[in-house]
Amino acid sequence: MPNANIRIVLVEPAGPLNVGSVARVMKNMGLHQLILVNPQCDYLGEEARLMAVRAADILETATVVESLPAALVGCVRAIATTGDDCRSHPMPLESPADALPWLLEAPSALIFGREDCGLTNAELNRAQRLIRIKSSDAYTSLNLAQAVAICCYELYRQEGSATDFVADVTDVTERNKEERIFSQSPLPPLSPSPNPSLSQSSPLPNSVPLEQLEGYYEQLEGLLLKIGYLQPHTAASRMEKFRRLYNRAYPTVDEVAMLRGVLRQTEWGLKSYPRSPVSDTLDGALPENPGDIKSE
Fold first, then answer.
1. Residues of the chain above pLDDT 70, percent
2. Mind listing the pLDDT tens digit for each residue in 114-153?
3. DSSP state of 201
4. With contact defined as beta carbons under 8 Å apart, do 30 and 1 qualify?
5. CB 47 within 8 A of CB 17
6. Minimal CA–CA distance to 104: which of 31, 23, 166?
7. Which residues make beta-bridge pairs with 118?
8. Separation in Å, CA 156 to CA 13, 77, 110
9. Run of H or E including 210
10. C-alpha closest to that of 80 among 94, 66, 70
């Protein structure tokens, strides 16, 4: 079951009725992994159980963690939801129908923010893709449980499309075999899938877990601060650009190990070789952006 790979992550949920409703719709749609990041309510209390109805087992087996990075350990893909438009964050916003099938292929997380303020930019940066549920301009804000329900239904629908396609392919193949017995003609090619995002997706060649990728980002930021490419007051915004670059590439475990090896060798070189005393810049430091150097 592809949905078994997907965990629903709620960051600091404050309403037990919401958490109970989320548990119910998860069970309705075949999802079972609920992760609660620093919950601000009694998720096992009477109110939550009242809304969960027959999904109390989802509440009882929910995993509670202190931070979003802890919730993502073991995942190789993550999508976060946001109610804001693209002006508040540089990553493109996608529709649930377009983005969510991508989660079906690997251990993944679907992240939802707080009821009152959603996810911070730092938390959004933990995801590789962002989705926004379109709604009427008259009232754009969705209830947390409603947003989860829409996304869970989309995952259930897409999973069903993938299953139906596999069944259709099997049926066509069997019919072709039977017809070939009488016609002795070559087997015709299968029709293209009605859902390319499910049937033509590339395999996951040793994809790197998100926590290992975070370790690389931390090491990269430390080195860039050390050599002066980053400054403390702008490091966060510049690192967002590096994150977006690597999120588009989906690096493998081996590739991240190679990149970290380059950083370690660079750090060793900085310690082992003396710096050149020749410099035109103030205090011998390079400008934050080497492209800013102007020739005389």
1. 74
2. 999 999 989 999 999 999 999 888 888 899 999 999 999 9
3. P
4. yes
5. yes
6. 31
7. 114
8. 23, 18, 14
9. helix 210-227
10. 94
